[in-house]
Design a protein that fits this description.
By secondary structure, the protein is α+β, with helices and mostly antiparallel strands. It has helices at about 1-25, 45-65, 75-100, 105-125; strands spanning about 135-145, 150-155, 165-170, 180-185, 185-200, 200-205, 230-235, 235-245, 250-260, 260-270, 280-285, 295-305, 310-315. The protein is about 30% helix and about 30% strand.
């Protein structure tokens, strides 16, 4: 609802910007603006004011889109406070248009200002759209730059460390997860979470990780995005399941025995430069090097592109 309101708000603001631009260029519509003091072309000073009005409207639209989560430009606190300021300005503008001495301004601009004020109030109250409402359980990226863990809602910038915008997670503890990446004081990872909105924050519950040794009676790979290994022929071959883009799955680029009970699998992403944004499983068979002769076997997954190292165990 808030995103729809923000888009509708922006469309009306866009129409007002075109109107103000026409006034600035000399359109004879002065009776609809500035109290109707000039019925035809506006004087130069008022035309400059129309240009300034366009800039103000652009700020209004940007705040509305940011507050609703359509774009991410300013901190959430700024868009939250800013949207209430916009609401107040538009309520005042509605009253000013209502008492205007110009009938055209009263009859045309008062309803427009009223609609904008109502939409601004809806956006200010509702805040960002709950992007996980249709899928309360899913795979989400969590990033903590030192000021608290954030649930990424929308795109994640592929920088190192990554960046994103979203709401802070109440009660998040990195001790509760089995692995994460860290660089330049930033921690992040992808986790299967059940998400519950809580105003400007969210609360999450970690979904149960897959039993990596295949104890799930129905499906040893049933889980929520965590890699898994399970024996095909004990001591000789095993299956590896990884999760990622279905068009660019991870493949084993190298297998190295580092001790009699440990093996390192070097994983690289296949596919082209553009990958789909879905998350799906990929299974491949791995032959255990002959140097590995003792059990249990520690399997280290070396994601070469992201410097991530995951540790699994074959019993």
């Amino acid at each position: 609802m808030s995103q729809f309101s923000a888009i509708l708000f922006t469309a009306v603001i866009g129409a007002l910007c075109l109107f103000q631009l026409a006034l600035a260029l000399g359109a004879p519509w002065g009776r609809f603006a500035w109290g109707g003091q000039h019925e035809g072309r506006l004087p130069a000073g008022y035309r400059v004011g129309s240009v300034a009005g366009i800039l103000v409207y652009a700020v209004f639209a940007g705040l509305a889109l940011d507050r609703a989560g359509v774009i991410r430009v300013v901190p959430d606190a700024v868009s939250q406070i800013g949207m209430w300021v916009v609401f107040g300005v538009l309520v005042l503008g509605t009253l000013m248009n209502l008492i205007s001495r110009s009938k055209p301004e009263r009859y045309v601009m008062t309803p427009v200002a009223l609609v904008l004020a109502i939409l601004a109030g809806i956006i200010a109250v509702q805040g960002p759209a709950n992007q996980s409402a249709d899928r309360p359980v899913g795979t989400f990226t969590v990033i903590d730059s030192g000021s608290g863990a954030v649930l990424c809602e929308g795109g994640v910038m592929e920088s190192h460390p990554p960046q994103c915008r979203g709401r802070k997670i109440s009660g998040w503890s990195w001790d509760a997860v089995d692995r994460f990446e860290e660089a330049s004081g930033v921690r992040w990872g992808e986790y299967e979470l059940a998400v519950t909105p809580d105003g400007d924050r969210v609360t999450v519950v970690l979904a149960d990780p897959v039993d990596q040794n295949g104890s799930d009676a129905d499906d040893p790979y049933a889980g929520f995005g965590e890699p898994a290994v399970t024996w095909i022929e004990v001591g000789r071959t095993f299956d590896l399941v990884t999760y990622g883009s279905s068009s660019c799955p991870y493949i084993v680029a190298g297998v190295e025995a580092t001790s009699v009970d440990q093996v390192v699998l070097r994983l690289t992403r296949s596919g082209g430069d553009v990958c789909t944004a879905d998350i799906g499983p990929s299974k491949q068979q791995v032959v255990l090097p002959g140097e590995v002769s003792e059990r249990p076997v520690t399997v280290l997954l070396d994601y070469t592109e992201s410097d991530t190292l995951a540790k699994l165990t074959l019993p």
